[in-house]
Design brief:
With 233 residues, this protein is α+β, with helices and mostly antiparallel strands. It has a 5-stranded antiparallel sheet with strand order 1-2-3-4-5. Strands 6-7-8-9-10 form a 5-stranded antiparallel sheet, covered by helices on one side. Helix 1 packs parallel to helix 2, helix 1 packs across helix 3 and helix 3 packs across helix 4. The chain is globular and about 60 Å long. The termini are far apart.
Length: 233
Amino acid sequence: MPELPPTSLLVETRHSLHRVAEHVLSAALKTATGHIALQPAPGGFRTPELPDGSVLAVEGTDMTVTTGGGVRRAPLTTVAHAAHLAGTVAGFPWTKHPPATPFEPDARLTVDAASAAVLAGWFALGSEALAALAAVLEADSPGEAHIYPEHFDLGMTAAEVNYGVSPGDDAIELPYLYVGPHEGPPGRDDFWNASFGAYRTIEDVDSPDEALAFFRAGRDLIHQARTHTRSST
């Protein structure tokens, strides 16, 4: 992973990209298909192909729209401008639950190039690790990994355990990996270091192999704890 920019820039960039993810990319996807989940992509993240054949993406500090006729590209300045480039209406179309980010279409976005590169690289690292984990956990019927816009993390579930890759949040500012058993962590120790389970930040993980090792360690510890609980009842 590249050298980390100041945490303040990482956080500001994450907040801005999260707004674009919810109020432009996922908004367009939900309007067109009813779905909201995004995918990692080179330089950032993207929608699946939309019904009209287009793909909306964030690549570095730019918004891109890929169609059969080529690629339209413009710097990320505001949510409104990104939506205009995409030819869609800004604002996540919610009914029961509001979006996680405020809808301020004309507010200036802060997207630092170095921070955007770190976050894109983190999603790429995590995507590779989760794909390898899915192969290991094939018997557990793992779900497909997606970027869920409400949390803006890349995650999948297998055998009632959430495995994921977060760009950071209000509780943990740095990008991090997590393992979250649905029943809660089996203990509190050096591994289980959070109320939801376990996490490791970008400062602790340098490669997809190290990320996979963390996920597998969590899975093995959960399996041991569940086996012990069943044998005790």
